[in-house]
Here is the input.
Amino acid sequence: MSKIRKAVFPAAGLGTRFLPATKVIPKEMLPIVDTPQIQMGVQEALDAGIEDIIFITGRGKVSVVDHFDVSYELEDHLRNRGKSDLHSLAREVAEKAHVAAIRQKTPLGLGHAVLCAKSVVGDEPFAVILSDDIIQSRQPVIGHMAEAYETHGGAILSVMEVDEGEISKYGCATPADAPSPGPRLTPLQGMVEKPPASEAPSNLAIIGRYILPPEIFDCLENVSPDANGEIQLTDGLRLLLENSPVFAYEFEGKRYDVGDKLGFLQATVEFALARGDIGPQFRDYLRSLDL
Ligand code: G1P
Here is the structure.
């Protein structure tokens, strides 16, 4: 199987759950401590050796692309003042990532966003990372998934078990009655987008990391829009399953849904506590609170 070289980051959503903060600032740029959410996703791809970064953007998202460019004025300023740490922080991420941006002109769903990447991805397998799913793990989850793809092919979706009442927020995966081809992998026989809890075939939720073969593009072109007129990636995957294996990958690590206010706060607190610079002081501060 060919190596995964490209990662697609859908980033055209309006971020209404974080209004008023997201009226002008893209939700992807909201920071966890001091790092924009999308940078954490891009860092995961870079750590896995995936350097071609494709942003699917929309109106008002220019700062997402600018963030991954070199900022001469800022760098010059920091260099002249001898602030080499800050200088390399500003430079690092811009240096490694090769960035392309494509406009999703109408918000027609996640499947449509992925389809927008077709001309840049071409005829090779690729990763999709949803930056509002942050996964804290020792090694990049997308890297493990890419390795699994290189051995087994097909499509690979990260999954985690959720409480029964939560499944209606996610794509829901149905395991097949077939042997696992490798560690953490389960062959799937179906998937359905956000089923009501009473109709959900399992409690296995699809989380925002995917390795997809190029055949997914044909599938997405042939999927019917859902009741809201959106093209869902999950529906495209169900079409793909007719001709290609699709595997669930149970990742190791802790996932935060930073697209949700509570998840955002949880990630902020836990990432801050884990930091060498502010962690100990922040821990003392939390302990001092009369909770
Ligand atoms: C999207 C996908 C869904 C998946 C989820 C993971 O939904 O459509 O299948 O489970 O991401 O975060 P969204 O959260 O964008 O509504």
About this structure: The mean pLDDT is 94.
